[in-house]
Amino acid sequence: MIQNSVEGCSIFRYFVDGCVICRGLRLFCGPLCEIMFRMNNFWDKLPRPFFALAPMEAVTDVVFRQVVAKAAAPDVWFSEFTNATGWVHAGQKAIGGRLVKTDAEHPIVAQIWGGEPGDMEQLAAHCAELGFDGIGINMGCPAKSAIKSGGSALIRQPELAAESIASAKTASLPVSVKTRLGYTRVDEWRDWLAHLLHQDIVNLTIHLRTKKEMSKVPAHFELIDDIIALRDEIAPQTLLTINGDIKNRAHGEELVAKHPGIDGIMIGRGIFHDPFCFADNSCADSTNPSETTFSSSSLEEHRYPQAGSPELTRATERPSRPEDSTSFSEGSAFPAEASQERQLDQIAASRPEEKDGCEVEVGLGNEGERGNKEDQHKQQLLQLLSYHLELYEQWHEQTGRPYETLKRFFKIYVRDFDGAKDMRDQLMHTKSTDEVRQLIK
Q: Is 277 a catalytic residue?
């Protein structure tokens, strides 16, 4: 992987005085840098298959990640999308709390995007300083605001994509890429993915749709075996992660069993159907909440560091949400131009056979048994919502998110029990977290 030559290596940038890692002579520092890189490469230490929560704009912030961790944590975390050029030119004000995290979140990858390699290099270095474990470059976001300078637009600019990867590698963190099969046509996948695999990245995550398809068609699972074969031919050392239409851990494990060669599974919209989707045997857990019901004491025991504590890793300036920030990014279920309630209704309606991401056999047991389980599940979900409210208040100063942004999450927790729709309608008219607590107590 390391090229021991006067031009330097393919992973670490060399300056006039040598390698930025060991400052050694260019001809002799390669082996040491290779060892240091492997020591810092968390991807090699993950279980197989590993599970990741997809980066989602306006969703996977420091607050929601902690809620998911409480419900059932994935193996890898990703930040929201952070634009490199915006950060370089406007600093923290341009990224609106997207890189705020806790030291308890490991391993965590900073998901960045952009079309200027120099800006990518600077932001990647900043992410390394903040303590992120890896850099993830988004080359799949289909949003109009993203494709002006990055995202899925890089599918049509392969050389710029390669330059962006090389620039991100200078931060001395493992670099991964998240992309789609192609821009317009599905048959673009082979040339595009081959090009990325030639860039010596540690992990390639593929959303099994094109940019044009958005999420309007089923994911192309039929291509998985061909993609695995391509990876094995070009870059067998690169891990392969599959994304798109995956409901939960059980579904992901089924895919891995059917398609040997998949290393990781990334779940995005599945988290909205089932916040416990990363749990082992999640369907059973969803219908047997007694195994994972949270008490106030258990919430206290598992709480992440509070905002303002020395354990917190965050940007030094108080961020604000930019008016021109990306309103919809790959994997996000919440485009800004539609009402939050309607968006989540559409997500739920798209999977009529699912209940919280699982197929539940409601015909088993007597009525009292089923009623008791449903009530336990209701309490479990409402406790998660209560935890979300608490975290929102703790981190509000660091994230700068207005109260209205909370409403996009209500249907995750208020669903699948008698009176859920009426409760959601009332929640959508609230103006504070205290009002929410009054309704759900």
A: no
